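Appendix B. Worked example

We walk through a single record from start to finish. Start with the input: the chain for Large ribosomal subunit protein bL20, Halpernia frigidisoli, length 114.
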Amino acid sequence: MPRSVNSVASRARRKKLMKQAKGFFGRRKNVWTVAKNAVHKAMEYAYRGRKEKKRNFRSLWIMRINAGAREYGMSYSQFMGALKKSNIELNRKVLADLAMNHPEAFKAIVDQVK
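Next comes the structure step. The output line below is what the pipeline stores for this chain.
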């Protein structure tokens, strides 16, 4: 009895991966062995990038809060410490948004903390 290899599934698997490699440069988009490695590496970068994005946004929020707090004579660490002492539970994302887009609301928080 001849060996069964299920070429339908194999073809579908290759086709799926080649579709993911669409838009890559050179042989990375159309040569199976090169595309396979390129897609695998791209997936690793994407996974790592999703973690990095969270770090980048947190640091952006910290910079914005620091800039907003310094307008009223406080550093970021002083502001955050005072915020914790006065039991105001606003996260950095909200505080950064207030500092950027609603300076009067941010000033009210700084006045309440001082």
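Two observations about the output. The longest helix spans residues 32-70. The mean pLDDT is 96.
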